[in-house]
Write a structure and sequence with these properties.
alpha+beta, Immunoglobulin-like, about 40% helix, three-stranded antiparallel sheet, about 200 residues
């Protein structure tokens, strides 16, 4: 449950004002005695302290949640920086693509599919791994209207690199769930897989 700022102000105000109303109801006249005002101050200070304590607890909980969200975001960013990222490149003068690991982590259990014809991938190759900076020529990608590479990191998290309409897309399982078109491409039939030569 998220507590809004106006709710904090309302709680603090009620905690301070309700005791004043009860005090005013009990003692209907204003005293001219300084000792009465001192007693009133002592009475009221307990409720002000209680109000401060409530606000302090609420703010501490809110700041703790903000800090936890920041730590989670930093952790996710660090994880993304350390992941493998397979890209497809072309060297000037070559007709086929090269597959390169541009990320920091190792790409494992690589499955590459290319060229869709009649809702079926026409090429299907397997590779063991690519470490940071490694690349493989993919002569089977000429011609290729699409290229899909599925791979894992060392924690068995699955990733997908997709080139479709000359645009690169990088997908993890979360992004895949929200995009039915990419999911459809992943589920297309394919020819039998063979290992890279």
């Amino acid at each position: 449950m998220t507590i809004k700022s106006w709710q904090v102000i309302t709680i603090a105000s009620v905690t301070i004002l309700v005791p004043i109303l009860f005090y005013g109801y009990s003692f209907t006249h204003l005293s001219t005695e300084s000792s009465d005002w001192a007693n009133f101050g002592s009475y009221w200070s307990a409720f002000i302290a209680l109000s401060n304590l409530i606000v302090f607890i609420i703010l501490t909980v809110r700041l703790s949640k903000i800090d936890q969200a920041r730590r989670d975001s930093d952790s996710e960013m660090q994880k993304n920086l350390e992941r493998p990222v397979i890209v497809f490149t072309k060297i000037h003068g070559e007709k086929f693509y090269r597959m390169k690991n541009a990320g920091k982590g190792s790409a494992l259990n690589i499955k590459i599919q290319s060229h869709i014809l009649q809702d079926k991938w026409q090429h299907h190759k397997l590779a063991y791994s690519l470490i940071n900076g490694d690349s493989l020529p993919m002569s089977f990608t000429y011609p290729a209207n699409a290229i899909l590479c599925t791979y894992e990191d060392i924690l068995n998290t699955k990733y997908h690199s997709l080139m479709n309409n000359d645009t690169m897309h990088f997908l993890d399982e979360k992004k895949l769930e929200n995009n039915p078109e990419y999911k459809r491409l992943l589920e297309l039939d394919s020819v039998a897989a063979t290992w890279f030569d």
